[in-house]
Amino acid sequence: MVITMQEEGTRFNARVGAIIYNEDKTKILIENQHNKRYMFPGGRIDVHEESKTAIERELIEELNLKANLNLKYIVEMFIKSPKTKYHEIGFYFVTQIKENLISNNFKSLDGDSYFVWVSIDNLDQYNILAKPIQDKVTNNEITNNTLEHIVYREY
Known about the structure:
The chain has about 160 residues and is mainly beta. The chain is about 15% helix and about 45% strand. The two termini are about 30 Å apart.
């Protein structure tokens, strides 16, 4: 059972995401769900599941990928869409892999999405849900493993 609560006009999620760089840190792997929205690979945390266990599970389920992951960001996001206000707490982990491990336009193993490698120089052309993380990657601000807390509000 995933950690999600929903009432009319509002929704709360607990999520994990992976900031996956290629070997020379010129590209980042992003996920496209249903040709609508982009996000960092990951998913929701299950009840009684630790965040690191959740991201490890999600990467295996979607990409058959095991990687050395370091927790970099805890993000509280308050995002609005036309019908819903979203409150999300996200745990974002950083890793680096060889680009050839995941082919471009790789369809997830569960069939819900596909993954693309995007040049960091072009990342700002994508509307990624985790906007504060996208900004950190685009501005080359991920330079160490120091844990950071970010609050991002649209409402």
